[in-house]
Amino acid sequence: MQEFEDVYVRYYPQIYKYVFRLCGNADMAEEITQETFFKVFRKIDSYRGECKLSVWMCQIAKNTFYDIIKKQNRQTDYPIETIPDESDLEISFADKDLAARIHAILHGLEEPYREVFWMRTFGEMSFAQIAALHQKTESWARVTYHRAKMKIMEELN
Asked: Which of 42, 44, 77, 116 could form a disulfide with 144 if both were Cys (CB 3.0 to 4.6 A apart)?
């Protein structure tokens, strides 16, 4: 039990920060982080060591976040401020109609484009972290993100 407590103390700030970036709500991030550690405690025997423990835990946190969102039947209603365009400039989300269009486009993207775009843009994850979560190369993560961005821009035009 002491080992799990050490894991909790060591990784709690990192997992909380990751979840907070996903949802933008401190209370929700706290709830998801607690649920994540509960799942980690129950599933620690299934951890195979193929990736860093923190990456494995972030994957559990991300899945927990998506599960909660599905249960609440919410559409991506988070404090999103920008989305990169073709030249990596920022588009303001002050226009609610534009924000709604972008959310609808993003919701309609197929996997893995939607997930990689979310992880990079809203989760502020590096391409290396995204690649590790998907057990792919960093180049795969970059290309997938770029393709997702292009699909969003095509739909906007």
From this structure: 116
